[in-house]
Structures are given as structure tokens and as C-alpha cells.
């Protein structure tokens, strides 16, 4: 019997069996012990599954595909951008060659990010963007004759990716990379910043930051943090005042400052970039996820002219990094379209609308049994439990409400696409509540 003779259900089961046997999913075992959901198609804010989950084949995506699909799925403007570029060229090497989509993207990113970021390195993923950022900082100090400055300082509770240097600046205890203790570079950690976007800067914590940076300034290449929102390390929010403080301390002690805006860039926190909440600029900024509207993988590492020119004056006057698909024309074209689609609309009002909807929809969970905290910032809603979440039970409960969520650790959270309407937003909130109770 050939594939064409199989029923739709049989084809689905065959695909899922192959998936379990051969496809290694993120943060999962191999062979897989949990069956993934097979997605047939996606449009707007909805995923259509091959088989029902929680009694529903269509689920509202409360995750924006890991925070990337800010315009939803199958968007006509983004589809057109990809098709038009595909008719011209899908890819060309970036060594010795260049092309219009990448040039326009770099110029646009320089225009919309804080000054004095001037130079753009296009890479493949957020983790690689952080890898490049750290390499830039290390090579800068090598080039200007300060090779001892080769350590990074960060605060606990952070997450910056899964390649080696990014793993070294993720939370060393609560993160996912304890296995590599003793193998990764030995970085410096201070306690996580006090919680609360609207909280005042804590003088004792400010003093601790100042002491750590001053004491280690001679060996510090840079401080790297996720501004305002710590993502996969715990979905915590902190005051923009700590960004201002870090900028002052780094300037005072000759240390570079890196902002990892892979999760927060393009409006997610309520400002176009989280750095804008504080009105400060880092020496290096990492972007990814929503850069292409969730269509294709691409990231960007931006830096100041001072940093780039410092590297160029070194004995090795080039940044020795060059991904094969660097500056991919398809990804650059859809990134340009996604940025313009975002900026041509009143995205601030849409994010505030989502923020209001999440605050309203999640409010009743505060103080509920098993719930430790409920917090919302921009288009991010988080329910923190007082116990590890039962992912299978929580996922099933959310699906019964018609919502796709992906809880982790003790967190049930949502980052909806900006195009989510009020009715679907209410359903997402209901899904979060159901997942929190079941988990």
C-alpha cells in the first residue's frame, strides 16, 4: 500500500511515528517520549492541527511561535515580500557580494535603534547574535591592547542562547546549562535585579552592581543583560532604572555594555526596544525572533562605530565570523517588510490594548491556589506557580479553551501576536487560567 492509499488519519500517524523516531525537538529526549502536535497550516492567529487537541483542531497561538510571529501567520504583505524576492534570488554568498535587501535592512535597523549604534552584522539566530556580540567585545579589547579584559558580567536569572559563549552568561544554577559547568568560560554573576518594572532602583542593589563592576573592571570585557524583561530564564520584569545605572557604571569603569533584545525588540515590552524605556544605548545590541515577523531565521548584532573601528585597528583587523547564510536575501526582504508593517501602524496602541486585555483577563488568578504571582508588561502575560508546571496537563487544559501555550518550569505565560483581537485575547487569558489550574 502506497502513501496515496493511506487515509488522512493513517498518514498523520505515520508522520508522527517518524517524528518520534527521528526528529529531535528542542529540549526533548531522543527517541521522543512525548508526541508533538502536527500542524497542517496557520493563518492569522490560528494554528490548524492534523488531529484535535483538547477537542479542538484550531488553536489560537498564544506564543507567537516563541515570540517571533508578531503579525500572525500567512500575512499577505509578508507573503508578497518573500515571493517577490524569491523571483529575484533566494540566496547569494555575502562574502565579496552584497544585495539590496540586506543593505536596506541594515540601514533601517541603524535608523530605528538607539544612537550611536551604526554597524550591523547579520547572522542566523539569536544565539549566534549573542555569540557575535561577545566575540566583538573580546576582540575589541584585544585590538586596543587590553587582552586581560576577557570576562563577561551579568545578573542571575538571564538566558542568552544555547551556543557556548551565550550559555556561559545564562543563569548558572536555575538555567538549562548546569551540565556544562567547568567547561564553559568562567563569567561573573551578580544577583538578579529586584523585580518590578515600576519599582524604584534599590540603593543596596545599585551599590552591589557598582562594587562588582569596579572590582573587576580590569578583567571585564562587557556587561550583558536582557533589558527590562528576562525571558526564558524566568519571565521577570525589572526597572529601566537599572539600565541607566549600568550605562553609567560601564562608562565610568571602561566596560562595554551589551543589551540582548532578541525577545524584547520590536515593541514586545511596550517600547520599540526595551532600551528606550530608559533612554540609553548599549555599545552592542542583539536582535532576532520578531526581526522577520517569524517567517525565516535571521538575527542582527549592532555595534557602535567606536567598537567597530577599534577592532579594525587590531593585528587581526576583521571580525572573524561569517555564517554561510549571512544576510540571506529572502530573510532580509521579509524582515524589511515586517519592520515597515509594524512601524506603519499604531503598534503602541495595539500593544497597550493587549496589555490591558491581559491585565484584565489574568487579574482573577492573583491569589488563586497554587499561584505565586501574576504579572503583565506590554504584550507579555505571566502566571508564576508555586510548583513546577505539569506541561502535559497544562497544555491539554489550554487546548480545551482553544489556545496553544507552551508552559515551562513554574511558568504559564503568553506573548500573543499583535494582531490578536479582543475576543481571542480573552480566550488566551482563559487558556492561561485553565493551564495554571491544571498545571
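^ Assign residues to that structure.
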Amino acid at each position: 500500500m502506497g502513501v496515496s492509499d493511506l487515509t488522512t488519519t493513517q498518514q498523520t500517524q505515520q508522520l508522527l511515528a517518524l517524528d518520534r523516531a527521528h526528529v529531535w525537538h528542542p529540549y526533548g529526549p531522543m527517541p521522543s517520549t512525548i508526541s508533538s502536535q502536527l500542524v497542517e497550516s496557520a493563518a492569522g492567529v490560528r494554528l490548524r492541527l492534523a488531529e484535535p487537541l483538547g477537542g479542538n483542531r484550531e488553536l489560537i497561538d498564544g506564543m507567537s511561535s516563541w515570540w517571533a510571529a508578531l503579525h500572525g501567520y500567512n500575512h499577505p504583505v509578508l507573503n508578497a515580500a518573500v515571493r517577490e524576492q524569491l523571483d529575484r534570488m533566494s540566496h547569494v554568498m555575502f562574502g565579496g557580494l552584497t544585495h539590496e535587501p540586506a543593505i536596506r535592512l541594515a540601514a533601517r535597523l541603524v535608523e530605528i535603534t538607539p544612537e550611536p549604534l551604526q554597524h550591523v552584522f547579520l547572522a542566523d539566530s539569536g544565539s549566534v547574535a549573542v555569540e557575535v556580540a561577545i566575540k566583538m567585545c573580546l576582540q575589541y579589547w584585544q585590538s586596543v591592547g587590553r587582552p586581560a579584559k576577557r570576562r563577561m558580567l551579568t545578573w542571575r536569572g538571564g538566558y542568552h542562547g544555547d551556543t557556548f559563549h551565550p550559555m556561559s552568561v545564562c543563569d548558572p544554577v536555575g538555567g538549562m546549562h548546569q551540565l556544562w559547568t567547568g567547561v564553559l568560560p568562567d563569567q561573573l554573576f551578580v544577583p538578579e535585579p529586584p523585580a518590578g518594572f515600576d519599582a524604584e532602583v534599590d540603593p543596596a542593589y545599585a551599590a552591589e552592581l557598582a562594587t562588582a563592576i569596579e572590582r573587576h573592571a580590569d578583567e571585564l570585557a562587557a556587561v550583558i543583560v536582557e533589558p527590562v524583561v528576562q525571558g526564558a530564564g524566568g519571565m521577570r520584569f525589572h526597572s529601566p532604572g537599572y539600565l541607566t545605572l549600568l550605562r553609567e557604571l560601564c562608562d565610568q569603569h571602561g566596560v562595554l555594555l551589551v543589551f540582548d533584545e532578541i525577545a524584547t525588540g520590536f515593541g514586545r515590552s511596550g517600547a520599540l526596544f526595551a532600551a528606550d524605556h530608559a533612554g540609553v544605548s548599549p555599545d552592542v545590541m542583539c536582535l532576532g525572533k520578531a526581526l522577520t515577523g517569524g517567517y525565516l531565521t535571521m538575527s542582527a548584532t549592532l555595534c557602535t562605530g567606536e567598537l567597530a573601528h577599534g577592532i579594525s585597528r587590531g593585528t587581526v583587523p576583521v571580525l572573524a565570523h561569517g555564517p554561510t547564510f549571512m544576510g540571506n536575501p529572502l530573510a532580509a526582504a521579509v524582515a524589511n517588510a515586517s519592520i515597515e508593517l509594524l512601524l506603519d501602524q499604531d503598534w503602541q496602541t495595539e500593544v497597550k490594548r493587549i496589555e490591558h486585555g491581559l491585565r484584565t483577563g489574568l487579574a482573577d488568578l492573583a491569589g488563586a491556589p497554587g499561584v505565586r504571582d501574576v504579572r503583565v508588561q506590554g504584550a507579555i502575560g505571566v502566571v508564576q506557580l508555586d510548583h513546577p508546571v505539569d506541561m502535559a496537563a497544562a497544555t491539554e487544559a489550554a487546548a480545551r479553551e482553544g489556545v496553544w501555550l507552551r508552559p515551562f518550569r513554574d511558568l504559564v505565560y503568553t506573548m500573543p501576536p499583535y494582531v490578536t483581537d479582543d475576543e481571542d485575547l480573552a480566550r488566551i487569558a482563559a487558556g492561561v487560567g485553565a493551564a495554571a489550574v491544571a498545571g
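The chain has a mean pLDDT of 95.
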